[in-house]
Amino acid sequence: MAKIVMYPADNRKDTLDWKAVQGQHVTAVQRNILVLGSGGREHALAWKLAQSEGTHVFIAPGNAGTAQVGVNVDVKPSDFEAVKDFCLKQNINLVVVGPEQPLVDGIVDFFKNDEALKAVKIIGPDKRGAQLEGSKAFAKDFMEKYGVPTAKCFKVNKENLNEGYRFLESVKAPYVLKADGLAAGKGVLILNNLQEAKEELDKMLDGKFGAASATVVIEEFLKGIEVSVFVLTDGEHYVLLPEAKDYKRIGDGDTGLNTGGMGAVSPVPFCNSTFLERVEERIVKPTLKGLKTEGIDYKGFIFLGLMNDGGNPYVIEYNVRMGDPETEAVMTRIEGDFADLLFACADGRLDEVHYAKSDKTAVTVMMVSGGYPEAYKKGMKMNGLDNLKDVVAFHAGTAFNTDNEVVTSGGRVLAVTAHGNSIEEARGIAYREVEKIQFEGVNYRHDIGLDLMRMP
Ligand code: AMP
Ligand code: GLY
Q1: Could you read off the pLDDT of 95-140 as tens digits, one per residue?
Q2: Nearest residue CA, atom 3 of ligand 2?
Q3: How many domains are there within the chain?
Q4: I need a labelling partner for 210 at 20 to 30 A (CA). Which of 46, 143, 201, 241 fits?
């Protein structure tokens, strides 16, 4: 069956007033999918879903890139009533939630409890399941209860502050302090000095991250190399999606401030079959068993932020969504019909679908605005996007200006992904193309994947 194109791929409209188009594009092929979010992750999800048989992909609110693979709709993911309205009027069959906030705020519960939305499937955990990411204290208790390997920790609030100090004194530097709640990716502090750690603990409890740090989890520091492993589960069955390595610091050689992610590589050479088997046996299976025992019906992604310490995996954190920029590498390595996989997930039939990973290596380089992750300018014109070869340029922070030109609209701007038979080859292609793209103040890391190439 031919793919149905709702709008020309080069449709350069930023955001459609969906009310003006509603109903026009509902066809017999009932695979209308709504992706919630506006970053590179959502562009990659929408890009992959648009390749599936007979899908119509909508993205709310999307960006200039998502407009090339689907229809952007002017609906905020946080406005559940507006999301509902759109789903019903546009006959949406499946909603894929990109970011964590709507999940933590209960969008899945909202869908499940609304009679009118009964027929609309949604990928993501309910509010209780989303606590795996929404509350670090909940996640740590859960791991402890179900025997999932993780760093030793102590949960502190204003009532037991002195015990918190004692715990800090009992562990070795560096000291890891984590705000319990969501803090826009900024709630983790790693400090080398005990006195400084105590002072920061005080500040966190005094509201450094607002209500999110009213409770702080102090953790033992884990040594090793990090990797992101992605699980898709229907609550009963699961598949391991391709894993990826994320590069979090702004500067080459892992220097400077932490960011939302400056690049990704998939697969990760040290994630061999022995390591992944350990991940499944020690982490994935106990996690799914724990969710079931707790009566949490989890249909969605579980992103395991892992530390590999000498071949043994430890959980640094759970996320209840896909990673960004990992998704921009991972989606390019999933073979076959991704929509089938997600529909099967929503229906509890993940054991029935065929799923394969490409054996190519994907390297993603994130191009960011000058100044990011601190203050940066927006609205910079972008050049070179039309001359790219052999890469997919996923848009992270872009928009159209009034002249319909693509301009920057965020700190992270473009995630450029290339494939190769090796990291070296994929890197070569990615950087060759990155150099063609220009905008004022452009910045990117030059060493994505280099550390992995040097590993035995
Ligand atoms: P998170 O926001 O939980 O992803 O933490 C941010 C980063 O802090 C992680 O990606 C790790 O690099 C680091 N980190 C968090 N917890 C630990 C830990 N217990 N030991 C070592 N590094 C950690
Ligand atoms: N790349 C890390 C994250 O998405 O949280």
Answers
A1: 999 999 999 999 999 999 999 999 999 999 999 999 999 999 999 9
A2: 323
A3: 2
A4: 143
